[in-house]
Amino acid sequence: MGAPKEGILSEEPLYDPKILQRLDFSKAPTKFSPPVSAARPGDGLRVRPLCRADYNRGFLQLLSQLTSVGEVSEEQFLKRFDAMQACPNTYYVTVIEDTTNGQVIGSSTLVVEQKFIHGCAVRGRLEDVVVNNTYRGKQLGKLIIMTVTLLAEELNCYKMTLDCKDKLVPFYSSLGYTLEQGNSNYMMIRFDKAPS
Amino acid sequence: MGAPKEGILSEEPLYDPKILQRLDFSKAPTKFSPPVSAARPGDGLRVRPLCRADYNRGFLQLLSQLTSVGEVSEEQFLKRFDAMQACPNTYYVTVIEDTTNGQVIGSSTLVVEQKFIHGCAVRGRLEDVVVNNTYRGKQLGKLIIMTVTLLAEELNCYKMTLDCKDKLVPFYSSLGYTLEQGNSNYMMIRFDKAPS
To answer: Where is the N-acetyltransferase domain (chains A, B) (predicted)?
Structure first.
């Protein structure tokens, strides 16, 4: 009797998918040609929250096109998924699925941070953006970034921020992100255990 | 019968304070003179997690020296505190208390973000650093920043990052933070509801 239950659990979205349907892409600070949105991403594509079953749909292999992922067992993946889900209104890992082959071919994450400043405001962060390199040139990067950006606005974030390498500045600029004069420094300390 | 319970609740720390006692300041990438640590911050000072009672100890007034806070009622503050506490292993709002007058005179926050990349790693972010301007020049900024930085390492973050204005780059550089070559861009979109 456990199988159906597990089946439901494995498709359970990390967050409520309805919110993606109501994002207004006409407000996006970039144009899509042809026009697409999270609700209508194009034939054979679906934009939706991450779910547990994505472990078997190439989600981690996709991330490995972005940076090192290492050996992550299904158990580890599920534990991390559960830990994200245990933080209310925080993690919005969003994927593009190619419905013709059931593979995850794009992903980006909105992380919402709660503040005391600005009247107990919330802010958003854009993290871990990747599109399968065999699907490049189809505005899917723009689509997945704009999806979580509009999602941040929908969730009442007062700003959405990102950190990036020099070579990506023109791309993010084309999507409405700015290097704010005098306030665009990203600094870090890497600890000994740091992966590359 | 409610009062004692409320009293205990109001002093309940946002996170386990024991972890602050074991931070090894000899590992800090900056020197303190005289030597201080989170465990021994100096006479009349205490470094500890935020608690609910800090609403009445000047915590928000302190934050207003950093940026706009607005009118935040005790109810709003407690709701935000509870929301942070509801996210396991995420929010580490840390304060310095002047024990001679019971006021919160410094604060900084470590926000831990969970990832799938790097073997389901966690990273840290330094947020909302402020020291009461009448207590400047006592290395309290260094102390509170290094406290949450070492805390990030203790919690197995692979890196700790921050974003800052140009004028603060030399200060953070002196604490071991670096502008990584080709990877130090901080970009943003401010939404209409954005506070200044």
So the answer is: 45-196
Interface list for A 105-124 with B (CB within 8 A): 111, 113-121
Q: Do B159 and A184 touch (CB under 8 A)?
A: no
How open is the CA angle A149-A151-A157, to the nearest 5 degrees?
80
Provide the pLDDT confidence category of residue B193 given band limits of 50, 70 and 90: low
Q: Which two tokens stand for residue A139?
A: 């505005």
- Provide the CB-side half-sphere exposure for B90 (13 A, CA): 25
pTM over 0.90: yes
- CB-based contacts of A64, cutoff 8 Å, min separation 6: none
- A29-38, B3-12, B54-63, B103-112: range with lowest mean pLDDT: B3-12
Instruction: Tell me the pLDDT tens digit for each residue of B122-172.
Output: 999 999 999 999 998 899 999 999 999 999 999 999 999 999 999 999 999
Contact B174, A192 (CB under 8 A): no
* Nearest CB to A187; choose among B59, B76, B161: B161
* Chain A environment of B169 (Cβ under 8 Å): 185, 187
Size of interface A-B (CB pairs under 8 A): 231
Q: How confident is the model at residue A6 (pLDDT cuts 50, 70, 90)?
A: low
Q: In this prediction, does ipTM exceed 0.85?
A: yes
